[in-house]
Amino acid sequence: MMPKLLSAIMLFVAVVFLSTTWIHGQDQTAGQKPKPPVRAALEQAQPAAATSVKSAAEKYFSDVELLNQDGQKMRFYSDVLKNKVVIINTFFTTCTSVCPPMNRNMEKMQEALGDRLGKEAFLVSISVDPETDTPPRLKEYSRRFHAREGWIFLTGKKENVDWALYKLGQYVEARDDHSTIIIIGNEPKGLWKKAFGLAKPDELVKIVEDVINDR
Fold it and tell me: Contact 180/196 with Cβ under 8 angstroms?
């Protein structure tokens, strides 16, 4: 009975609903974390062609500029989150403890998604050490986990990455303190969950399926 009880407790703890107020301008998640020391130029002006009416999610997350593993510029909300189901984790390439097993779990979710990757759901891995993790380094690292199109690795200017992490509630002052929490969100539905990134892959896949199906 004890193993079953412990498993049930771990699964209960692993899955946590984020408050829907998270994307309605109330910074509850990030408020529990340290704040980035530099904020200048983080909430960048939107491109001239952008509409003047922003959604609550866009106002909250902002469109700070990041870089993917191919060196392409990506706006945090418009290009990474908007109208997508996303599975987000944080890591750094020189990490030898929790990052490799957590990214292996991401790889397992990639396998489970199959052809739906890049269509129904996107994997997003954000480096907490952007000064070391350049796009070429991320590209090389992504190959270790057989990343396919639809799995995005992100870096960029440190202040921009820190701001994106802060809005996700994942900002840390020291890279080794980064979270082992995976964030699974359905941005169009406003549904966001957290899960323990080192949980059993099949448990994580079930959470992802529930978010895709809006449950």
Answer: yes
Residue 201 to residue 193: CA distance in whole angstroms: 16
Helix 201-212 and helix 99-113, axial crossing angle in degrees, nearest 10: 50
What phi and psi, each to the nearest 5 degrees, are found at residue 155? -145, -160
Measured at the alpha carbon of residue 126, what is the angle toward residues 29 and 137, in degrees to the nearest 5? 160
Q: How many degrees, rounded to 5, is the angle at CA 108 between CA 106 and CA 110?
A: 70
Over residues 28-37, the pLDDT tens digits come to 444 455 778 7
Residue 205: give its domain's CATH number. 3.40.30.10
Residue 84 lies in a domain: yes
pLDDT at residue 96 tops 70 = yes
More confident residue, 107 or 58: 107
Residue 107 lies in a domain: yes
Q: How many CB atoms lie within 10 A of CB 75?
A: 20
CA distance 198 to 69: 24
pTM higher than 0.70, yes or no? yes
Quote the mean pLDDT of the chain: 84
Residue 144 token pair: 């270790």
Domain assignment of residue 199, given as a range: 2-42+57-212
